[in-house]
Amino acid sequence: MLDTRAVMRSLPLVASVLGRKYGVTVAIGGTEAYTDGSAIHLPALPVSAPDTFLALARGYIDHEAAHLRDTDFAVLKAANLTPLEHHVWNIIEDWRVENRLVASFPGCRGNFDWLIEHFFGGKVAGTRIDPAALFLNWLLLTVRAWDVPVIGKQRDSIAAHLDKLCPGLLTRMACVVEAVRTSCASTAEAIAHARAIVAELGKATETPQPASGTNQDASQAGGAPDGTGNGNQPTASPWERIRNLLHAQEDELPQEFGVILGEALKREAPASDGLPVNVATVTHKVSWDLHPDDIAEAKRASTALRTRLHGLLQAATISRTHGARSGRLDPRRLHRIATDDARIFMRKGTRVGINTAVHLLLDCSGSMTPNIRLASTACHAVASALETVSINVAITAFPASHDPASTEQKTVGRLVRHGQRVHPRLKVAAVGTTPLAESLWWVMQEMLPLREARKLILLLTDGDPDTPTCALEAIRHAERLRFEVYAIGIGAVNILQHLPGRHRTINTLAELAPAMFGLLQGALVGRRAT
After folding, report:
1. The CA-based dihedral angle spanning residues 272, 274, 277, 278, taken in that order and rounded to the nearest 10 degrees
2. Which residues, including other chains, have CB under 8 Å from residue 172's CB and lie 6 or more apart?
């Protein structure tokens, strides 16, 4: 049984859980955090992290998942918004999609509230900030304060200062902004509201109300897009700076919230106890049907294991009855009353059956070329035997692809999925390196939602991993989470020394199938192979 508390402290597995929960893809690896419109990409993560970073990572996934689920990117592209309209739309859309996600998953509310207060609940900037920046901050805080009222103080402070610089501006804008709160059910409506806000801002700057008396703040406000305020250049008035905002380019506007979150995630990532975790990505692994002779050999080799497993499963699930002091009256035990034996009732006892999932992880690196045919055949034999006794089995090959010109080969290829019938299309080519650490993390993510109480990972390899330290960290973390890792090593494989009692080493091809069978049978009955 997996340790649930340990899982929820493991960032790579938390990311996987959230991705499945929201129905989006979460990829882990590299150095950047971003969303490409189809998946959420996270940088290499520490195995575990403090609560603050965990909240930041979960909040980032929640935020980007909300966009992937509910933002209509085709409608946005067709709208052809100006940079300012797009910025205003993003403020509105962030609020809209987050609330849509909360409606489906109420637990997200706490993550979003923490993010909003964490990033927007700080001190209000000084009076020298550009009026255009003040307006955008006011708009952002106004929208965010609808869900997190505590940041209303920052919004009101900005509003008070902006009222001195541009009297009447916020009075005119308040109604059109408030309309967002009552009717914004789609990306198209968010676009319409953004255009209405920008249009109203343009109208307000056409007939600005003059400030009463002298306005020292206006003369102190920072530089504007069309004037530096030094030398012989005239300093633009606050109203002119607001007007210039209408024509601002993308690089002159503040960063979007998703970008801010991504940069914070990259910047604030704590050092891992071991090494940062990269998770393999799934790509297509070309495979062919095994040769008929190999299939026949696999059937013969699996017969003994299938027979032993079937008998074992029957013994593990048989129900027996025994005498008890309560339960259903057993007429055959009534004679015990004469000897004051109260065990005259009948109670059934059921022994626990084999509630196990097994994932075969097949090394398909280039060094496996001489052995890949027999290894594939052995995988088919083992998987077929497990299937006959109703054990949930899967087979995955790693790496799935190899590009000699690329250093990124952290891929896996599904050959048989959990819940899928075992098939003979398991003949694969051996090529590439050995990304064991990344593949183990992927298998843990893959097996995490399975219902079986025991989860076994059986590795078949003939060489050491690309990054032994990372692979060892993955094995140790799997054990902490109560995954069970076993291995068959072809020849002397150094990584196997970290699996005492849970590996077999073979030196000839003839030893491969019986070694794998013996190790797996020992694992299923709960004892370690010797």
Report:
1. 130
2. 200, 203, 204
For the entire predicted model, the pTM comes to 0.80
pLDDT in tens, 371-415: 898 889 888 988 988 888 888 999 999 999 766 555 455 899 999
Residue 527: exposure state from Cβ atoms within 10 A (0-12, 13-18, ≥19): exposed
3-class secondary-structure state, position 394: strand
Q: Report the distance separating Cα 434 and Cα 494, nearest Å.
A: 13
| pLDDT confidence bin for 498, thresholds 50/70/90 | confident
Per the listing, tokens 């009955």 go with 525
* Region class of 482: left (phi > 0), else alpha (psi between -120 and 50), else beta: left
> 513: which 2 tokens?
């199938």
Cβ contact 239:398 at 8 Å: no
d(CA 520, CA 312): 13
DSSP 402-438: --TT-S---EEEEEE-TTSPP-S--EE---S---HHH
Tell the residue number behind the tokens 């068959």, with chain if given: 488
**3-class secondary-structure state, position 392:** strand
How many Å apart are CA 440 and CA 478, to the nearest integer?
A: 8
Q: Which two tokens stand for residue 330?
A: 């057993």
Q: Which helix (H) or strand (E) holds 294?
A: helix 292-317
Beta carbons within 8 Å of 473's beta carbon, 6+ residues apart: 47, 274, 275, 277, 437
**Amino acid identity at 15:** A
Q: Which residue has the tokens 């700076």?
A: 241
Helices first, then strands: H and E counts in the chain: 18, 15
* Alpha carbon 501 to chain centroid, angstroms: 33
What are φ and ψ of residue 350, in 5° steps? -115, 125
Q: Are 198 and 82 in contact (CB under 8 A)?
A: yes
pLDDT category at 171 given cuts 50, 70, 90 is: very high
pLDDT digit string (tens) for 440-466? 999 999 999 999 988 999 998 887 898
